[in-house]
Model the fold of this input.
Amino acid sequence: MAQTFSADSHDTAALSQRIEKRWALLMVSIIGLLVAVMIFTGLHWAMMPPSRVETIDPSTLHLSGEFVESNLGSAVEADGSVTVRVIGQQYSFTPQCLVVPAKTPIRFRVTSADVIHGMLITGTNINSMVEPGYISTFKTEFKQAGDHLMPCHEYCGAGHEAMWANVKVVDKDAFSKMAVNTRRLTCDL
Amino acid sequence: MISNKRLVLAHFWLAFAVFGLAILLGEWQMFIRSPLHGWLHNPDLYYRSVTAHGTVMGYVFPTLIAMGFGYAITELSLGQALIGRRWAWAGYVMIIVGSVAAVVPVALGLDSVLYTFYPPMIGNAFYYIGVVLVVLGSWIWVALMGINLQAWKRAHPGVAVPLPMFANVAAAYLWGWTAVGAALELLFQILPVALGFSNTINAGLARVLFSWTLHAIVYFWLMPAYIAFYTIVPRAIGGRLYSDTMARISFALFLVFSMPIGIHHLFADPQVGSGFKFIHSVFTAMVTVPTLLTVFTIGASVEIAARLRGGKGVFGWLKALPWDNPQMLALAFSFVMLGFGGAGGLINMSYQLDSTIHNTQWITGHFHLIFGGAVVIMYFAIAYDLWPHLTGRAMRDLGMIRMQLWLWFVGMIVTTFPWHYVGILGMPRRMAYYDYSAPGTSGEAISVIMSTMGGALLVVSAVLFLVILYRNHSASRVEPAPFTFSRAIHEPSSLPLALNGLGLWVGLMIALTITNYAYPIVQLMGLPDARVPAVFVGAK
Done:
C-alpha cells in the first residue's frame, strides 16, 4: 500500500473513485428500496396517520358539537362500523374506559380540552397526538378481543404520569348486544 | 498552534462541567421512576429535572462543544489567529447568563415545560429568555466562523479550503439556520404569552416551527463527531483519509438534507397533511446517505491504517489496528452505536413503523444511543486529542482513558437496549412513575432496572472522564508535536467551486426549507380558530 501512494497516484485515484461510486450507488439503491416499501404500504394497506388539519374550539367542547359529554364513547354507525369519540384533558381521558368490537372497522375522533396530550393503545399500532384546537381522526381494526392500556404519551403537566385509560375489545356479538340499549358505549363504572 | 487556548479551554470545561451535573440528574430520573424507588410524592420534581437535563444536554452542552472545537479548528486548520476574539468571549458570557436565567426558574418549579416547550403550556418568561440568549450567543460563533473563513479565502485565492474548516463552517451555518424555527416559536408565539401581551397560542403551528429546529439540531450535535471521524481519527491511528472529496460531499449533503425533514417528528400529529408527512419521510431517507458514505470512507481509511501497519487478508487487517489507541477505540464504539441507532432511526423515519413506537421509551432510547452514545463518545475523543495542545501537558492516563471509553460504551448499551424494548411494549415517555404492579406493565420492571444500572455505569464513566481531564492540568509539561489533521491519500490541489465554499449548499438548504415548510406554516397561520387559551404552569 505504501508504495502505491507514489507509484501511480493517478491510477489509484481513479480506482478509489470507482469503488466509492459503486458504494454510493448501492446505498442510494437500498434507500430507494426502503422508500418504495413505504409508498407501497402507505397506499396498499392505507396505513395513514391522522392528517386532516380539522380544527375545533377547545373552550366550547362541552357546550355543543360532537364532543359534548353525552356523545363520547363508541357509536355504531349505519354501515355497521363504529366511531369512538374521546377527549383528553389534564389528567384523564373521557371516557376512561373504551369498549370496542373486534373485527369491525373503527374510526377514532380525538381532541384535547386544554394542552397537548397523546394516546397509544398497548399491543397495537394505534398512536396519535391529541392537540387542543385540532381533531385527530384515524381508522383501525382490532383483530381479537382483549384488554389494553391507553396511556397519555405526551408530557401534559405535573399529573401526566397518572393519565392512563383502558380499552376493552369484545367480540362483535357481545358488542351488538350491549349496543341495543345504549346510544354511546363505554365501560366506565 | 492554538493561540486562544483559554477561550477553547473555557468552552470545553464549561461544557463538560454542565454535562457532569446534567448526567447526575439523568441517572436520578432513571432511578426515581424505576421499581427501585417508591412513587415520587411530588412528581413535579421529576419534570423539573427532565427540563434541566434536556436543556443542558440538548442546548448548552453540544453548543459549547461545537463552539470550542470550532475556534480550535479555525486556528489549527487555517493557521491564523482567530478574528473576533472579543466577540467570541461575549458569546461565551451570553451562554453563561442565558443558562443561569433558564435554570433558576426551572429549579424553582416555574418552568416544568421540558426543553421542547410544549405550548399552550406556558411557564415563567425567564426560562425562554435564557434559551434565546444561549442561541444568540451561539449565533455570534456562527458569524465568526463565516468571517474567519472568508478572511482566509481572500488571503489565499485559489487554494483549497482545509477540510476541517469546510466541515466546521457547514456545521455553523446548519445551526444558524436550524435555530431559526425555535427562535420564531419563542419570539412570536411563546414569549408574547409568557410576558402577558397575548393569551392564546396555536399549538399546532408551534409544533411545526419547533420541528424545523428539532431534527437538524441533531445533526448539529453530530457534526463535531463527524469532523473527528474524518480529520482526527485517521491521523491518530497512523492512516490516511480515503477521500477528501467524499468527505466534503457528505458534509454538504448534511447541510442540505438535515433541514427539510423535521416533520417526521409530527407523523402522529393532526395539524399536518399526509402529503407533507410523506415528503419529509422521503427526505429523511436521503439524509441517511451522507452517513452511509461516511461509514465507507472511514472504514476504508481505517483499513489503510491497518495495512500500513502490516495488516493482511480480507478481515485479518482488523487485528493490526492499534486497539490500545483511545481514538481507535472511541471510533469503533461510536460506529457500533451509530449502527444500532441508525437502524432504529430508519424505523422512526417510515411513518407506518413509527406508529408502533412514536413517543414511547423507544424514542428516548434511540436518541440517547445516537447522541449520548455515538456522538458524545467522540466528544470525549476530541477532548483527549486536543487537551495536550491546550494545556501543554502530557496525557499519560491511557489505561484510564480506555477504561472510561469502555464504561461509556457498555453503559450506553445496557441503558438503551432495554429502553428500546419497553418502548415496543408501549411504555410511554416522560412519566414520573409507573405502576409496575399493573398486569399490563409489570413485565417492564426488570428492563427499567437494567437501564438504571446502565445509567450508573455512565455516571462512573463521566466522573472518570472529568478526573482524567483535570489530572492532565498538573501532569508533566511537554512540548507537543505541532497539531495536524488527517491527510488524504490524494490531497486536493484544486477543488470545484461548489466544494471549496458553502454558498451553493446554503442556498439549497434555504430553498428546500421553503419548499418543505412554507405551505404547512402558512396554512396553519391562516387558521385563527386553532388559537387556544394558554395554560400556565408553576406560579404566575
Q: What stands out?
A: Residues 43-78 of chain B form the longest helix (36 residues). The domain at 5-536 of chain B is CATH 1.20.210.10 (Cytochrome C Oxidase; Chain A).
